[in-house]
Amino acid sequence: MLALASLSGLGQTQEPSTDKITVTATRASNNVMDIGSNISWLDDESLRLIEQQHINQALVRIPGGWISRGNGQEHLTAIRSPVLTGSGGCGAFFIAQDGISLRAPGFCNVNQLFDANTEQASSIEVLRGPASTMYGSNAEHGVINVLTPNPFDTAQSSLSLSIGPHDYSRGMFSLSKNSELHGFLLYGNVTKDGGYLHDSGFEQQKINLIHQYQDGKWQVKNVLAATNINQETAGFISGFEVYKDSAIKRQNPNPEAFRDSQSMRIYSQISYVENDSTSLTITPYVRWTDMQFLQHFVPWQPLEENSQASVGAQLQFQKDYGDLMWLSGFDVDYSNGKLTETQTEDFSPTLPAGIHYDYKVNASVYSPFAQLQWSATRLLSLSAGIRYERTKYDYNNNLSAGSACALGIENCRFTRPEDQIVDYHQWSYQINANYALSNNKRLYAQYSTGYRAPQATELFRLQAGQTVAELDAENVDSVELGLRGQAQAFFYDVTVFSMQKDNFIFQDTDRQNISNGETSHRGIELALSYQWQHFYASANGTFAKHRYDSNLRLSQTNIQDNEIDTAPQHMGSLQLGWRSDSGEFIELEWVHQGNYYLDPENSAEYRGHNLLNLRTGWALNERLDISARVTNLTDEDYAERADFGFGSYRYFVGEPRAVYVSVGYRY
Fold this sequence. Notes:
One of its GO terms (cellular component) is cell outer membrane. The chain is an all-beta fold.
């Protein structure tokens, strides 16, 4: 069922969590109880209930993760990590649709989740920690995989309309047509938001077309996904705890800021299965994105325009020998990326008007991988995997090399490297075990490595006279131990992890891109759920420490052993709800965000916050339903994200109490 389908499904008791099938953890279908690592998910039923206005409202239910909400649909991601920004902050997460990265390798964008139709996904699956053996570069801190629906499971068409404050409205639709061999599904949504802050708001459109064919040993899934967003972006407001000041909190210091972004992906998943023991899948794809935005987060506010066009394929072979299962494959991606940065007016001699950067990069990635799973005994299964990846960047500068400033100007902010070719060769490894303490209780352990090749902007958009960025790929070593099980209606999953990150890429106090940083990430995550008749409770929590393990030159003072900024030690959420067989439901949600430091020196801090959300709905008849959501029920003054930059506290303001109402019809 799609995210806009009838609420009547919410009245049904969910299947036990131990029956959940995941495709993200191993790139193949497996029962959650048989996985030797962590895995979290939001199914279509949960997504329908949440009816998000922003992706962070959904992923707040995932342990170990925080999607920090910016203005409009902008966001930053944290999974077993701090919220990562600036140099080294982009590309630490593999964000995908049906296993295909939303952006080309080397051309990440921190906001790229708005390229996926998460509102109408069949599920969203999240792996926490490194998963480069399965997914390659960028699967360093985690994986978010948005899964599209199966047309054969979507028997009805539907329409819905949602309205809310500040001229918010969203229409959603799905059209379904199936035969014995073919399934067709067209679905999408159109959103308009006038914005809580002055001179803000966005309009967004998402559309997906799926054709699926299944006949005997063959199955083909063809997908077209396209998105567009036009956003008037509000920037930070500055001043200590100004998010509490009703006279200031709605101000927009950057009314001229905007973001326009379009994306499209077309791919085919072609699978052949022989006797349920041998399968071959090939997934060719094309990918295209185009974006322009005003960099409101720096005072001189240049305009950035970037685009990418890619073609690639994923080849995967799986063979089951009984106690042994062999999985191997080969991923290839060819991309062409372009970037220009232009400033309309002089800010200073070292920040001049004109074109700062204008370059293109041809990138190629070749990556074979293999994994062997062995059922060593009736109770113990073991798995080992390995991947090799070669990444090559061919950079061409369309402007004069060197300083972008006038002759004689020292300490120019912008430096253009000469044409060059850069390549990286990386190996990653994974070993895990799953031991059955009983039929419904599993102990699992995993050692895994992750890596992130430097992104094109870190290599070629240089500053302050740096002409060559000799950057190493980031590497993460991770160990985790977990216990997962179900006792009647109670499901639990508890994971302890320790991660060490080397070659962390950052921009030092001289504005040079370097890669000699070391950080550590340790903590415990838990996910709990309980069902009793029509009542249910679910909770997730994270307790973690993220530290600088070396004296990175992010500050004039020694920051070794300091906590990493924008990295809460504790966060989580709790949901209490009731659902009837006829479709009525009500849920109260508590969201907790712990305190965190705002700078590497640990001298500025945000105190954290607690929010309550209320959701309820009714099925008026078999075709018509209505629901309502009240966000920030207690009207808390809070910041979606706090920051300290350019000598001032800065905040993205959290929105006050708001009521959203939706009406859905299916036919």
